[in-house]
Design goal:
Helix content is 43%, strand content 17%. With 409 residues, it is α/β, with parallel strands linked by helices. It folds into 2 domains: 5-209 and 388-408, Glycogen Phosphorylase B (Rossmann fold), CATH 3.40.50.2000; 212-383, 3-Layer(aba) Sandwich (Rossmann fold), CATH 3.40.50. The strands form 3 sheets. The protein has a 7-stranded parallel sheet, with helices on both faces. The protein has a 6-stranded parallel sheet with strand order 12-11-10-13-14-15, sandwiched between helices. It is globular, with a radius of gyration of 21 Å.
C-alpha cells in the first residue's frame, strides 16, 4: 500500500488527515460524487472526479474544472440510448466502455486510491490490481437482495418493472470480490451484505449528508406549518424523488386512495417509464409536480406537513435527510437509511415495507393528534442535525475511525 502523508485540513478545525495520496472518484453520472469530491478538495485532499458529465456541471457543485475529467461522449450516448432501449440491450457495452476509459485515465494520472461506483468498476479494478487501494461504492443493498425484492415487487405489480439483469448481478458480485473494501450507505445495506456472507472486514459504512444551510427551514416556515396543522386543515403529505416501483409507488398510490379527502398528496420528481401508467391512474389522487432543480427543492419541502417515503429498498435516500432538515416528520420503511436517524415517535416513524395499511393508520393518527404532530415538527426542527458533506468528507478521510458506529460519531 502506498505511504500516507499527514496534512492539515483547511476549515476543518482540529482535524488532521492521513491521506492515501492522490484520490480518484469514478462515477458515471453525478450521484453524490461531486458533493464528496468538493468537500474532500476543500479539506486539502488531492482528488479528481472521473465522470461522464460536462465539466461545467462539476463546477456548479463547487469543484474546480481542473479537478474533473470527463468521458462526455459516453454521457451523451448513454442518455440517448436510455430513451430508446428499455430492454437495456446496450447495458454491457456501455458499462465496459466507461470502465475501460476510467482505467486508462486513472492509470495515466498515477493515483494511489480509486473510489468507484458499482457497475463500472470491473475493468478498472482489473487494470489497477496490485497498484492502488480499490474502494467500491454500492448505493443500494447487496444486489442479490435488491433483485429478490424487486422481483417480488414485479409479481405484486403484475407488470414488468426494472430489475437488475443477470449480467449486472454477476458483474457486481465480481466487483465486490475485486474491491479492497465495499462502501455502503446505511445499516440496512450493511446488513444485506452480511446476510449474503460477505466478509465484514471488507465492509465500510459511510452515511451521506445534506446541505444544511440550503434545506434547513426558517422559523417562520415551521410556525406556518404548525399553525396549519393545529387549524385542522387536511394534512399535506409530501414525497420527493422518483415515482417508481422500487420507491414504493404501489403503496404510495394505495395510501393516497384510502386517505382521499382526509389528506392532500403531492409528489415532486421524475416518473420512471415503468410507472407511467400507474401515474395516470393516480392523477386524481396525487398532485404530480415535475422534477425540480436542487436549488428549488427547499421551496418544495415548505409545502408539506409530513414526508412520506414508502420505499421497497434504498441504500441512502438523501431526500430523507433533506426532509428532516426542512423540519418534516418522516414516515418511511425499514429498508433504507431512515432507521439510522429517525427517532421513532419523535421525528418520524419506521414502518414495514409493502404495508400501506400501517402508513394509513399512522397518518390517521397524525390527523387525530394535531398538537402531537405539531410537537413532532418542532422536535425535528430543533433536534435533528443531519450530517453535512463536510462530516462525510471527514469520515472518508478517517477510514479506520469508525465502522458501524458512523452515525454516532
Amino acid at each position: 500500500m502506498p505511504p500516507t502523508t499527514s496534512l492539515p485540513i483547511p476549515d476543518h478545525p482540529g482535524l488532521t488527515a492521513s491521506s492515501p495520496g492522490r484520490l480518484a472518484i469514478v462515477a458515471p453520472g453525478r450521484f453524490f460524487a461531486f458533493d464528496l469530491a468538493r468537500e474532500l478538495f476543500r479539506a486539502g485532499v488531492d482528488v479528481t472526479v472521473f465522470t461522464n458529465y460536462p465539466t461545467r456541471v462539476v463546477e456548479r457543485f463547487g469543484l474546480p474544472r481542473e479537478r474533473a475529467q470527463t468521458c462526455l461522449p459516453h454521457g451523451l450516448v448513454s442518455r440517448g440510448i436510455a430513451l430508446i432501449d428499455p430492454a437495456r440491450r446496450f447495458e454491457p457495452p456501455l458499462h465496459r466502455w466507461f470502465s475501460r476509459w476510467a482505467a486508462h485515465a486513472v492509470s495515466a494520472g498515477r493515483f494511489h486510491r480509486v473510489h468507484c461506483f458499482s457497475g463500472v468498476a470491473e475493468e478498472l479494478f482489473l487494470a489497477l490490481a496490485g497498484r492502488v487501494k480499490k474502494s467500491l461504492v454500492r448505493g443500494s443493498a447487496h444486489i442479490d437482495l435488491q433483485s429478490q425484492l424487486l422481483m417480488e415487487e414485479q409479481t405484486r405489480a403484475g407488470r414488468p418493472i426494472e430489475v437488475p439483469s443477470a449480467w449486472m448481478i454477476a458483474r457486481e458480485k465480481r466487483e465486490y470480490a475485486l474491491a479492497d473494501e465495499v462502501v455502503v450507505l446505511s445499516r440496512f445495506a450493511w446488513q444485506s451484505f452480511r446476510d449474503q456472507g460477505f466478509p465484514e472486514s471488507k465492509l465500510r459504512l459511510l452515511p451521506l449528508g445534506a446541505e444544511l444551510l440550503r434545506f434547513r427551514a426558517e422559523s417562520n416556515v415551521i410556525k406556518r406549518r404548525c399553525d396549519r396543522i393545529r387549524a385542522g386543515y387536511p394534512l399535506r403529505v409530501l414525497t420527493v424523488g422518483t415515482f417508481s416501483f422500487q420507491k414504493g409507488a404501489l403503496d404510495l398510490v394505495q395510501i393516497a386512495r384510502e386517505l382521499a379527502g382526509e389528506c392532500e398528496f403531492r409528489f415532486v420528481g421524475g416518473i420512471a417509464r415503468e410507472a407511467s401508467a400507474l401515474r395516470r391512474e393516480a392523477s386524481g389522487l396525487i398532485e404530480f409536480v415535475p422534477r425540480q432543480p436542487e436549488h428549488r427543492l427547499p421551496l418544495a419541502y415548505e409545502w408539506g406537513d409530513v414526508f412520506l417515503f414508502p420505499t421497497i429498498q434504498d441504500g441512502y435516500a438523501v431526500v430523507l435527510a433533506q426532509a428532516q432538515a426542512a423540519g418534516l416528520p418522516v414516515l418511511t420503511t425499514t429498508n433504507c437509511a431512515g432507521p439510522d436517524f429517525v427517532f421513532e415517535g419523535e421525528t418520524g416513524w419506521i414502518l414495514p415495507i409493502r404495508d400501506s395499511r400501517a402508513f394509513v393508520e399512522r397518518l390517521k393518527q397524525c390527523g387525530r393528534n394535531r398538537e402531537s404532530l405539531a410537537a413532532n415538527v418542532c422536535a425535528v426542527h430543533e433536534k435533528f442535525q443531519p450530517r453535512d458533506w463536510k462530516q462525510v468528507a471527514e469520515d472518508f478521510i478517517r477510514p479506520h475511525s469508525s465502522r458501524t458506529d458512523a452515525f454516532n460519531s
